[in-house]
Amino acid sequence: MAQVTEVRAGLPKKPSLEARFKRAVREARRWRIHYLFMAPFMILFTIFTIIPVISSIYLSFTYFNVLEPPRWIGWSNFKLLFLEDDIFIIALKNTLLFAIITGPVSFFLQFFLAWLINSLKYRIAYTLAFYAPSITSGLAMGAIWQVLFSGDYYGYLNYILIRLGILHEPYIWLSNVNTMLPIVIIVSLWMSMGSGFLAFLAGLQNMNEELYEAGKVDGVRNRFQEVWYITLPMMKPQLLFGAVMAVVRSLEVSGVAVALTGLPSPLYATHTIMTHLQDYAFIRFEMGYASSISVVLFLMMFGLSRFFMRVLSTKGEY
Amino acid sequence: MAIALPRLRRRKLKREPIGIYVLLTLMAAVMIMPMYLMVINAFKPLEELFLFPPRYYVMNPTLNNFTDLLIATGAAWVPFSRYLFNSLFITITVVSLHVLVACMCAYPLAKSRAPGVKLMFNLVVASLMFSPTVTNIPRYLIINRLRLIDTYWALILPAVAGSFGTFLMKQFLEQVPNELMEAARIDGASEWTMFWRLIMPMSRPAWATLIIFSWISSWNDEWGPLVFTRTEAMKTLPLAIHTMFSGSNAIARAGASAAAGLLQTAPTIILFLIMQKRVISTMAHAGIK
Questions:
Q1: Which of A46, A59, A205 is the best mutation test for B, with the most CBs of B within 10 A?
Q2: Among A28, A246, B1, B169, which is least packed by CB within 10 angstroms?
Q3: Do the Cβ atoms of B127 and A45 come within 8 Å?
Q4: How far is CA B28 from CA A123, A131, A169, in A?
Q5: Cross-chain Cβ contact A27/B115 below 8 Å
Q6: Is A107 helix (H, G, I), strand (E, B) or coil?
Q7: What is the mean pLDDT of chain B?
Q8: Secondary structure of chain B as H, E, C letters
Q9: In what helix (H) or strand (E) does residue A71 lie, and over which residues does it extend?
C-alpha cells in the first residue's frame, strides 16, 4: 500500500513550473487538515523563535550596543572576526578540538550505554543513575567540580594523588594551561548522558521484537550482528536526533568551561566560540558582533547536521 | 502468528552478565555521586558539612537544615508557597501544552506529503542551532510588544515554542508503520481519530521521554523568570532559591542551601521514575500482526 502511493507521488517526471504549482495547491488542499495540526506550534514557533532568529541575523550586520539603535555596517563584523580577532581563532581551535573529541565519544557512549542498560534487569535504577547529572545540573554540579579539582591541598583529586604519593605538592588543575581543556572535556563527557541517551532508550523500547526473531531465521548469529543489521537501521530516526543534539552540544560548549575556569579563562586556554560570544554579549554589550559570532556558529552546526541528515535519512522506509 | 504471545520488552539474555553489571554499577556510582552528595548534605549537621576529609555518609542525620530553610524563607518578601505555586503552575502548563503542540505538529512533519512540510521540518531543526544568547534580546522585545511582561504567559509561551520537542517527536513518529495508517484510513478513521487512537498510543515511549525533558527545562529555568517578570510575586522557585543562596549566603547557609537543592530536585526525580516506567511498560507495536 505504501509503495503504491510512493510511486504515484513520484510519477510526473519533469513537469512545468505551472503544473507543479497547480499540483502543490491541489495537494495542499487535500491535506489542509495537516496544516491545522501544525498551526498551533508553527504560530508560536514563528513568533518566539523564527522572528528573533531573523532579527539576530540582521543584527549581525550592524553595530548594536543595546542602548543606541543598531547601525548598519555591512560585512565589517565578519571581516573583523576572521581577519583581526586573534582570540576568536583561539576559540575556534579550542571548540573544534573539544567537539572532535566529545561529539563522537558522547554519541557512541550514549548509544552503547542505552543499549547495555536496556537489556538489564534494574533498568530504571541505572537509567536514573546515568541521567542524574542532567537532573542535578546547575549549582550542585558546579560546587562538586570545584571541590574535586581545587588547586590546594583540600581538593579531592590533589588529596588523593598526594596520599598515593604520585604528587608531592598540590597541582593547580584549573589554572594550568595544560590541564584545563582536558578537564573541561572529561567533565563534559561526564555530563553528556543527556537527551540523546533517553531518546535512544525510548527508541530501543520502540523496537519490534519480531524483527529479532525474523533476523534469527535469516541467519543473525550473535549480538553484534543483531545490533549492526537490525537495531541500528531501525533506530535511524533516534540516531539522527542524537547526532544533531551531539553536534549542537559539542559546538555550543560553554557552561562547563565557565563554571570550571571562569570567563575569560587564563590565557584563553578553554575559550570557546560560545564563551567568546558571551564575552561580547554580556560583558562588552556588543550585540552586533555577538550576533555575527552566532551566525558563524550556526553555519558550522548546520553544515555538520546536513551531513548526518543525509547519512541517516529514512525516506520511505516505514 | 495466530497466537499473540506476551512480548517481553527486555531483550532476553541467556545468562545475566555479571561483568557488565559490575562495570555499569561502577560507572553509575560515579555518575550519581553529585546527586548522592546533594541528598546527604541536606541531612548533615553544620559541623559535618565542613569536615575534611569529607565523609560519604552522615554520622548524625538531622532535619535542622530544613527548619533553617523555613526560617530563611520566612524572611522573604512574599510567602514561599507563592514561589512554589508559580513554579508548579507554570511547569505543568508548559509540559502539557508543549507535549500536545509538539506531537500535533510532529505528526504531519513525519507522515504528510503536503507541500511545505519538509521546509518546515528543516526550519525546526535549524532553529535548534541558533544560540539563545543572541535571540533573547529580540525575544524580549517581542514579549514586551505583546504586553506579556510580568504575566505567566511570558514564561509559558516561549517554552512551548521550543523546537526541540517537535524534532524529537517527529523522529519517533516516522517509525509508525505506514501500513497501519493506510489500514486505519480505509476503515474510515479521520485524521483526528488517527492522531488520538493510533499515533499517540503508539508513541508513548517518545512522549513520556519528552515530558521529562520539558519538565526539567521549565522547572529549572532561572533565566525566564529573571528577565520576563518584574514583581516578586511572579518569581519562581529556582530563582528564589538562587537569590537566597548565592554569594556569601552559599557558605553561611550551606545546610539550608543543600536542603533547598534537594527539595527542588525531588519532584523531578519522582516524575522521572514515573515516566521511565511508562516508557517501558508499553506495547508499542501491539496490533501490527
A1: A205
A2: B1
A3: yes
A4: 12, 9, 31
A5: yes
A6: helix
A7: 84
A8: CCCCCCCCCCCCCCCCCHHHHHHHHHHHHHHHHHHHHHHHHHCCCHHHHCCCCCCCCCCCCCCHHHHHHHHHHHCCCCCHHHHHHHHHHHHHHHHHHHHHHHHHHHHHHHHCCCCCHHHHHHHHHHHCCCCHHHHHHHHHHHHHHCCCCCCHHHHHHHHHCCCHHHHHHHHHHCCCCHHHHHHHHHCCCCHHHHHHHHHHHHCHHHHHHHHHHHHHHHHCCCHHHHHHCCCHHHCCHHHHHHHHHCCCHHHHCHHHHHHHHHHHHHHHHHHHHHHHHHHHCCCCCCCCC
A9: strand A71-72
CB contact under 8 A, A52 and B104: no
Tell me the ipTM for this assembly: 0.87
Contact B172 A49 (CB under 8 A): no
CA of A91: how far to CAs of A100, A252, A292, B96, in Å? 14, 12, 15, 40
Which of B11, B117, B124 is opposite residue A118, by nearest beta carbon?
B11
CB contact under 8 A, A52 and B142: yes
| Cβ neighbours around B30 below 10 Å, total | 12
Instruction: Assess contact for A126 and B24: CB atoms under 8 A.
Output: yes
Q: Which residue of A has its CA nearest to B177?
A: A318
What's phi and psi for A71, nearest 5 deg? -120, 125
Report yes or no: A214 at the B interface, CB cutoff 8 Å.
no
Question: C-alpha grid cell for residue B172?
Answer: 519517533
